Amino acid sequence: MPRKLKPVLWTEERIREELRRMDRITGLRGAELPITFTRNHRCLGSFYVEERKFAFSLYWFDDPEWPEAEARDIIRHEYAHYMNLERNGLRNHGPEWEACCREVGATPCARYRSLEWRFRFYELNGTPDRENTGDHAPDEGGTK
User: Fold this and answer.
1) Which of 10, 34, 91, 96 has the fewest CB atoms within 10 Å of its CB?
2) Angle at 76 (CA atoms; ends 70, 79), nearest 5 degrees
3) d(CA 26, CA 124)
4) β-pairing verdict for 53-57 and 35-38
5) Torsional sign, CA 67, 137, 9, 104
6) For 10-46, what is each residue's pLDDT tens digit?
7) Helices and strands in the chain: count of H runs, count of E runs
8) pTM over 0.90
9) What domain range is 116 assigned to?
């Protein structure tokens, strides 16, 4: 009999716990920023510069089969955008952002790279191309 997966519930508080952990590393206060949720399956997470808030997709974060490590990496990726803005005044995926990623334990890449889950992403969103490969943040309104 197949083993049933225990659902990982990514509540706002659980995400804030991860943000607080990174705040302890960086000395910043990202856990105090607003968090919103979407149902978007194309955008896993975002840090919105103008609104100074995080957004995460419940489509992915509510999926009990989505690995916890993947969710944590998305949270850390978006935190690195916040951190890069606070420390460097920058809002891109440049070398300063990559350094922020390494400091908080995020994979320093601009696009979602998990092979297993990328296939599922492509099934939902169509064939990948250079402009649509699963960015963590959207082109409009997010960190880009």
Assistant:
1) 34
2) 145
3) 36
4) parallel
5) positive
6) 999 999 999 999 999 999 999 999 999 999 888 899 9
7) 5, 3
8) no
9) 12-125
Provide the CATH number for the domain around residue 83: 3.30.2010.10
Q: How far apart are CA 115 and CA 107, in angstroms?
A: 14
- Tokens coding 141: 């309104």
Phi, psi at 94, each rounded to 5°:
-80, -170
- C-alpha to C-alpha distance for 20 and 28, rounded to whole angstroms: 9
Q: Is residue 29 part of a domain?
A: yes
**Tokens at 22, concatenated:** 């990174």
Q: Does residue 83 fall inside a structural domain?
A: yes
In this structure, what token pair is assigned to residue 85? 């803005």
d(CA 128, CA 144): 19
Count of the separate structural domains present in the chain: 1
